[in-house]
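REQUEST FORM: STRUCTURE PREDICTION
Request ID: SP-0412
Submitted by: Lab K.M.
Chain count: 1
Length (residues): 464
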Amino acid sequence: MKTTIKSIYMTLAVIALEFYPGASVLPQASQPPTVTTNAATNVTASSATLTGTVNPNSLSTSVQFQYGTTTSYGSNTASQTFTGGTTQNVAANISGLSVGTTYHFRIVATNSAGTSYGSDMTFTTCPTFAYVSNYNNVSVINTSTNAVVATVWAGSSPYGVAVKPDGSRVYVANNGSNNVSVIDTSTNAVVATVTVGSSPQGVAVTPDGSRVYVTSGSNNVSVIDTSTNTVVATVPVGYPGFVAVTPDGSRVYVTSGSNNVSVIDTSTNMVVATVPIGSSPFGVAVTPDGSRVYVANSGSNNVSVINTSTNMVVATVPVGSSPYGVAVKPDGSRVYVANNNSDNVSVIDTSTNAVVATVTVGVCPFGVAVTPDGSRVYVANYCSKSVSVIDTSNNTVVARVTVPAVPFALGNFIGTVPCSMPMVTTNAATNVTTSAATLHGTVNPDGLSTSVHFQYGTTTSYGS
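STATUS: Completed
RESULT:
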C-alpha cells in the first residue's frame, strides 16, 4: 500500500513538471507585493522625496506612501501602478510641509493577493532661523519654536544681516568695528572677519552666493568674494545706507542719504543709474519677480516703488512715521514696512500699492524679514529688546521673543540651514585657570554619524 501511494505522488510530480516547466512540483500561489521603505531624499524646509522599492510579484500593483507627523500618518501620495516580477524603485515628491518638523512615512502596496506595508521611517525638514543683530552679538532664533538657541559674538555694533541663499553662512555688518563677520550656520561660530569701509551698515548676498555687497560710511560699497572672504571691488556711492540684490543677480539697489537710490551693474560693479526718491531713504527690498523695488523713506513717511525696467518711481505709498525696514513676502503679494516712530508695521498689497493692514508691534521697530514659506514676519524692536512675530494669514502678533539690547537686524536675516548638517551650539567655557579650561557645546547629529571637535586659539583663525 505504501509503495502504491508513493508511485501516485511521483506520477503527479511528473505531470506537474510537464504542464508547468520550471516548477518544482505545482504552480506557486499568487503573492502580495514585497515592499521596502527607504530613506527620504531631497529634504528641504517644506518638501521631500519619499523613496522605497516594490516587487509586484507578477500582479498589477498599486503603490503609494503614507506620511504624517505621527505613525497614524494621515496623508497619502498619489497612487502609482507597477507590474512585473522584479524589485523596482518607487519615489514620490511631497510638499507643503512644516519647517523643522519630524515626519513619519512608509510605503504601501496592494495587488489582488493582498496589501503589504513597509517599515516606518522618519525625516526632519530643514530648520529655519532668524539671525538678529544686537549690541555686539547675534541672537539665533529657531522659527519653529521662537526660542533663542544660540548667541554668536560678532563685531562692535552689528547692523545689517544677510543669510547666504544656501543657508550655510550669515554675513553681519559691524558698524562699530568696520568689518563684516562671517558666521558658519552649522556651528554658529564666526569663521572669518572681513575688513571693509568705515561704519558699514547694509549687507546683501547675490542669489548665487558668490558675492556680498556691503555699504559703508566711506561713501562706497565693498564687494566681497565669498569663496575667499576678501574684498574684490569697491564701488563709489555717495552716503550709502542699505542694499538689496535683484533675483537674477544683475543689479544691486543701494539707498543713499542724498535722497536717491544708486543702481549697480554687478557685471561691471559700476553705477548705471540713479533714481530720485523720498527723504532719508533707509531699507530696500526687491520683489521675487524682480520687477519692483520698495524703498522705505524715513524722512517723508512713505515708500517709493521703483519699476526696475525703467528705474523710475511708479508709486508712492504713505505709511507710518519713520519707516526703516522693508521686506517682501516670497510670493510677492505683500510688503511689510517697520515704522520706527509709530511702533507698528504697515502691510502693503503689491497689486494696488495700498496699505491693507497695520500691525502694532514692539517699541522702535527697525528690521523686518519674512520666513521662506511666507507664514511669519519677524520684526526687531530695538527699544523694547524684543522681536515680534507676525502671522501673515491674519496680520496678528503671535509671539514675542526677548533678545539682548538694541536689536537692529536690517536685511534678509532669516534663512534655512541645510538639513544634512549637524546642528551645534558653542557654550561658555568652564573650569578656566591660567593654563587650562573645559570647552562646552551641544550637537544634534540629525540621524547621521557625526564627528565633533572644538577649534580654539588666540584669534578667530583658531589654530588648534
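NOTES: The CA atoms of residues 62 and 460 lie 57 Å apart.
Reviewed by: T.R.
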